[in-house]
Amino acid sequence: VASNERHGNNNGTPGKNAGSAGARKPKKRKLDAEVSQDDQVCERCDSGLHGDAMLLCDRCDKGWHMYCLSPPLESVPPGNWYCSDCKNPDSDCFGFVERRNTCQLDAFKRFDDKVRRKWFGPRPPSRVQVEKLFWEIVEGKAGELEVMYGSDIDTSDYGSGFPRLGDPVPASVDPEAWQKYCSSPWNLNNFPNLPGSVLRTVKDKIPGVMVPWLYMGMLFSSFCWHVEDHCFYSINYLHWGEPKCWYGVPGAEANAFERVMRKALPDLFDAQPDLLFHLVTMLNPSVLQANGVPVYSVMQEPGNFVITFPRSYHGGFNLGNTCHTP
């Protein structure tokens, strides 16, 4: 299970990239005097008449008579206006393209090696070099890139990175040690049912909440700025692989974070007011810091847990092949 993920600036439009550093196209007037009535026709009625009542989409430049809209408009709305097609995230790849076919782990690793050789050559890069290039790609300074991310893999179907009581014990593992780890409170399969957890009252096996997901990352595969559903805590364990770079903002600064995001990417938020709920937008932490938002970073190594707190916006990327459980 994998998704294709695209990085690279496209005039601030997240449909072609996993994030933008604030670049956007110039704002257009709603009634464009440079477009004649003969050139501009209404997408609904195919008529070029009544050009003074024509409303142009600020993203695709297509026009509609205000009286042809549903519901009709009596006057030009303030700010940017977007047609229904441009407001619909399903009509755009929005940074991630779902693959319906499965991808074997060895093929996934070969793709990672190919990307690494293309961008860094035969010599292994330093972590600083990888991080620097990642943000250059996101900001459109180094070209476009497509990578894959095996995300939201249901451990009920594909197996868990942690031992479970119903799983067969490998011959190379001591049965007592296996039993110990099966019942450990740090085993993420047990987390929802630990004493004191409100999730103990939930009876359904909700993936990602009651049942852990498994993720397979590769070089530059990213997880965009977001908070957890219902403002939950989250915990992530890196089983094996290359490090994973995290950026985090304290929960107390969530409102400040959202204000800076809207200030940096106004056109995107005009088109998609709930943009931050879609996990498709990256903004360089340096932009947040320059606007007074504190940002902290951690490099997660194999065997490390990373815990995020309620309303703590976080995002980051993988420095190579990884296997981790959130």
Automatic annotation (TrEMBL):
The keyword Metal-binding applies. Keywords: Metal-binding, Nucleus, Zinc, Zinc-finger. This is PHD-type domain-containing protein. It comes from the Eukaryota. Transmembrane segments: none annotated. SUPFAM superfamilies: Clavaminate synthase-like (SSF51197), FYVE/PHD zinc finger (SSF57903). Residues 39-89 form the PHD-type domain. It comes from Aegilops tauschii subsp. strangulata (Goatgrass). GO terms for molecular function: histone demethylase activity; zinc ion binding. GO terms for cellular component: chromatin; nucleus. Residues 180-326 form the JmjC domain. Its main location: nucleus. It is found in: Nucleus.
